[in-house]
């Protein structure tokens, strides 16, 4: 006699578990606590075995019968349903690890283990986990170039061309990692080279006219804002270091007796240590500001706390209060000012590039060129500081 929904709902618990058979090995096990569990008994290779099909009513009578029928088909084909279930679970586990999102998580974890900068990790996480979210649950081996292109084009159409290009490169790194870990056979982003529009280059505003740069240096010198802000602007102009490197500069990085500032790799854009020769003028800036950070490790601490660096916008805000718009100059623009003027005055390009901590785009040349041009850079930095004094005096 087959089970019915009425018989199942009317079944009451007893002191001991008991069975309600439905036929062909399927039965409902009624527990003393009231639980009703679907079970399927079968024999395979001369041995009796049992499969659990779930709990009623989560698994209905018709669902349980369908599961039984599928199991009987496997038995008829000489396959143990229990072994097949274990194989399917293992395959599902592997498939879950082979999604784009899972591989991307491993790539991000590797970057963190390799001490990537916090800002880089945040940016990569945003690109892979937010912008690439439509790919997250897709098996990575099944993702096509057309699928990725559709995602990138949506970003590109919104005006974020550079973001689209960066995401393509980062997605490519996920696929390359999947290839070496035997979870993908190819990188579909390779087919997308040339498929995206070139980014619109937005140069950071900078003053490259010597007379106008002299006027800016006078404005900084006369600025009556917070002393560390004024000092940081002067120091940025003199060293043409990246503003973030200046704002986060620590006292331990400076060796004033040797006139050198050693920026550790974790604070540089290229993730390589960079040494900056200190001109006489840059040392004077440090000596004038040094006592203000006696109780902390930062040379240019925040207005509110000597444990925090100046904010990212502090230097640019000061320039705005001096009357310079964002279209005229930014703190980062001092690098362009120095590069342009020094090139125009005939200083050696390779020495300028080394002073700017630029990385050679040619990988072979970069691998073999270990020269730091230190004596030439010492002369360059002093010459630049003297030029800034000259520009400032010439009204």
Q: What is the topological layout?
A:
Layout: H1 5-10, E1 18-23, E2 26-30, E3 36-44, E4 47-56, H2 61-76, H3 81-97, H4 100-113, H5 118-131, H6 145-157, H7 161-180, H8 210-222, H9 227-239, H10 243-247, E5 254-255, E6 260-263, E7 274-277, H11 280-289, H12 314-321, H13 333-344, H14 349-355, H15 363-368, H16 374-393
Antiparallel strand pairs: 1-2, 2-3, 3-4, 5-6, 6-7
Could you walk me through the main structural features you see in this protein, from its secondary elements to its overall organization?
This protein has 395 residues and is an alpha+beta fold. The protein folds into 3 domains: 5-89, Double Stranded RNA Binding Domain, CATH 3.30.160.390; 100-192, Tyrosine recombinase, N-terminal domain (DNA polymerase, domain 1); 210-393, hpI Integrase, Chain A (Orthogonal Bundle). The protein contains 16 helices and 7 strands. It has helices at 5-10, 61-76, 81-97, 100-113, 118-131, 145-157, 161-180, 210-222, 227-239, 243-247, 280-289, 314-321, 333-344, 349-355, 363-368, 374-393, and strands spanning 18-23, 26-30, 36-44, 47-56, 254-255, 260-263, 274-277. The strands form 2 sheets. A 4-stranded antiparallel beta sheet has the order 1-2-3-4, covered by helices on one side. Strands 5-6-7 form a 3-stranded antiparallel beta sheet. Helix 4 packs antiparallel against helix 5, helix 4 packs across helix 7 and helix 5 packs across helix 7 (161-180). The protein is elongated, with a radius of gyration of 34 Å.
């Amino acid at each position: 006699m087959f089970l019915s929904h009425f018989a199942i709902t009317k079944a009451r618990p007893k002191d001991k578990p008991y069975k309600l058979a439905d036929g062909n090995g399927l039965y409902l096990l009624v527990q003393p606590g009231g639980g009703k569990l679907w079970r399927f008994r079968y024999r395979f290779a001369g041995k009796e075995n049992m499969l659990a099909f779930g709990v009623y009513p989560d698994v209905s009578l018709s669902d349980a019968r369908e599961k039984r029928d599928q199991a009987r088909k496997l038995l008829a084909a000489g396959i143990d349903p229990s072994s097949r279930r274990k194989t399917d679970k293992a395959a599902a586990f592997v498939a879950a690890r082979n999604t784009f999102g899972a591989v991307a998580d491993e790539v991000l974890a590797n970057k963190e283990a390799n001490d990537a900068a916090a800002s880089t990790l945040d940016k990569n996480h945003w690109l892979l986990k937010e912008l690439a979210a439509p790919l997250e649950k897709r098996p990575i081996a099944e993702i096509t170039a057309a699928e990725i292109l559709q995602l990138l084009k949506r970003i590109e159409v919104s005006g974020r061309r550079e973001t689209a290009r960066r995401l393509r490169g980062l997605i490519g790194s996920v696929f390359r990692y999947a290839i070496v870990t035997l979870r993908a056979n190819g990188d579909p982003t390779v087919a997308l080279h040339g498929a995206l529009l070139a980014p619109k280059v937005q140069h950071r505003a900078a003053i490259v006219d010597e007379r106008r740069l002299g006027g800016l240096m006078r404005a900084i010198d006369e600025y009556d804002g917070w002393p560390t802000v004024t000092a940081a602007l002067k120091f940025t102009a003199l060293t043409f270091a990246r503003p973030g490197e200046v704002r986060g500069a620590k006292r331990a990085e400076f060796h004033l007796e040797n006139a050198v500032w050693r920026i550790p790799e974790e604070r540089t854009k290229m993730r390589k240590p960079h040494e900056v020769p200190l001109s006489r003028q840059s040392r004077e800036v440090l000596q004038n500001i040094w006592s203000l950070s006696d109780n902390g490790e930062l040379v240019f601490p925040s207005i509110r706390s000597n444990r925090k660096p100046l904010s990212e916008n502090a230097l640019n805000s000061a320039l705005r209060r001096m009357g310079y718009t964002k279209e005229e100059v930014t703190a980062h623009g001092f690098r362009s000012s120095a590069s342009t003027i020094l090139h125009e005055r005939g200083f050696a390009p390779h020495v300028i590039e080394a002073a700017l901590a630029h990385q050679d785009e040619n990988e072979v040349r970069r691998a073999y060129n270990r020269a730091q041009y230190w004596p030439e850079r010492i002369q360059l930095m002093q010459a630049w500081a003297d030029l800034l004094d000259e520009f400032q005096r010439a009204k």
